[in-house]
Amino acid sequence: MNQHQRIMSEMAVQYGYFSEAVIVAPSGLAHRVFEAFCVGDEEAHIQYASLEHLKHMARVFLARRKDADGDEGEAYVRQGEFDLGTAFSGQLQDRYPLPRKQGEEPVYKLRRDLTADERAWNVAQLRKSGKARLEHADALEAEGQLSGAA
Fold first, then answer.
1. Helix or strand or coil: residue 114?
2. I need a surface site. Which of 32, 41, 130, 135 has the fewest CB within 10 A?
């Protein structure tokens, strides 16, 4: 296992300690991971650089974290009933970012605790991102058709 994999593995272990926390900040997760690896004699500039990089890794980890209990892409309908507990498993993350001002650290909130406004903001962000990706795909496809590379 390389160093990156060891750090990401430790990140997953430390994330487990936040399982019931409603909101998780990348800096909190990064500090726990740092404490797991530090030996106590790191110089201040090494501590700072390490924590900044671990915060970046924690932001990526939290942004990509999917519901580990879900079955990827499957929606369940049991005997004609729509089961909200499992209907979207594997398609939804267990945490979503909260709106923030530029320069603020992102924080991630448990899906079940999102307010209607927070949920609506995330839906709008996902749709905005999806629209941008579709426009990009359309442009790439059109360029290929025009150049005969399709």
1. coil
2. 41
Q: Residue 32 pairs with which residues in a beta bridge? A: none
At residue 149, the pLDDT reads 62
Q: How confident is the model at residue 39 (pLDDT cuts 50, 70, 90)?
A: confident
Q: Is 58 left (phi over 0), alpha (psi -120 to 50) or beta?
A: alpha
> How far is the CA of 22 from the CAs of 19, 25, 96, 111, 112, in angstroms?
8, 10, 11, 9, 9
**Structure tokens belonging to residue 112:** 């079940």
Q: Give the pLDDT confidence score for residue 71 in this predicted structure.
A: 36
Q: What's the pTM?
A: 0.64
Which has the closest alpha carbon to 14: 44, 6, 108, 47? 6
For the chain, the first-to-last Cα distance in angstroms comes to 41
What would the mean pLDDT of 61-74 be, rounded to a whole number?
53
- Check if the beta carbon of residue 11 is closer than 8 Å to that of residue 57: yes
